[in-house]
Amino acid sequence: MTKYLFNFHIAVESVLSNKFRSLLTALGIIFGVAAVIAMMAIGSGAQKEILEQIKLVGVNNIVITPVVEQKEEVLSDETAAKEKPNFSPGLTLYDARSLEKIIPGITHLSPEIVLETNIIKNGRRRSAKLVGVDNSYFSVANFTFQGGYIFSKEQLEMGEAVCIIGKGVQAKFFSQENPLGKMLKVGKHWLRVIGVLDQRFISEKSLTNLGIRDYNMDVYAPLNTVLLRYKNRSLITERLLLRAQFQEEENEENKKAENYHQIDRLVIQVEKTEKLTGVAEVASKLLKRRHYEMVDFEITIPELLLKQQQRTKSIFNFVLGAIAGISLLVGGIGIMNIMLASVMERIKEIGLRMSIGAKKRDIIAQFLFEAVMISVSGGFVGVFLGVVFAILVSNFADIETSVTFISILISFGVAASIGIIFGITPAQRAAQQDPIVSLRHE
Predict the structure, then answer these.
(1) Is the pTM for the entire model greater than 0.70?
(2) Residue 402 has pLDDT above 90, yes or no
(3) How far is CA 305 from the centre of its chain?
(4) Which residues pair with 192 in a beta bridge?
């Protein structure tokens, strides 16, 4: 051990006596490790973001949304007489019940009605969304309650004037009191608060990419409460009859189409991921038949889309990681070249050490220690630069990054391994020198 410490001390002196050359030798390792750390941080951040988005939309969910605007071609009078546009009742609760009854493997089915409204309390008014749901909605969307309880069977069936509020609504209107049991005016009606949801932290990117709302400012009421007390678009009204009678005229250019769908969103949760595509296809065919061959709905599978996005990002990060790995390889080759040159410059020193008793393994240990010192010190600096670069990317490029301990450990381990692998050949070359010839070398 004493001999190895002595060899290590000589290696340290050699590296410190050639600081500039050692720094240039370590640059490849420094930038390679920094690139690996930064790329793994970006990849880990992307994966974390995808998992958070999957949690927001729920696991194994199929989302069905209505389509109000329909694109139609201009037909001649003769063709138009033969091909009259179909009349669809829109997406309704009957569609939801039919899907639940016919398609096997459905664990939850959650219809939603979303209405723009205002919340009023104690002279304070704010715009918000009233969302009509049943209790399956909170399971599908992974909601947890801060206080209170879900809707009872009687409240759901009778359409009682009750509601559950998001954390943002509580902060705005009940900041100094417990909201449970209190009354809140939502639109034209007063609703009694029976529950408060935990806060949902949603990034702006998730709001845009997933097309979801800020759940914290929503008010949730039973479906029948919304249909009976607020609005039911499926009721036969004079306007609906006019829409059916003059459908072609109502689809004129520059005229806003009216939402005739009873529900605004339908989420189907299935048992297993492999059943998602099959259930979506069956649901599409069933709804198309119920809507008289009129496709006025859209079916998406957020989890599969997000996993595809994750796969794309993983491939991209793999490519970037490979490029960073090439930088490390180049750095290792640079270490070997410089160390080989150092051997040629220090032949006389090697001969002197061997003439006073140093063995071949001592020479190998000295030059191997030098190579490892350069690569390890470059690894330290590279880790620091990689962490700094990841922070800068997160702050200025609006890309989530996550530096993990495993990424630092891998990068540092690779740097040390490169020092050993690429330092062996120069060390062996130095140990093979003839002491007599080396002492005569000029």
Answers:
(1) no
(2) no
(3) 11
(4) 162, 183
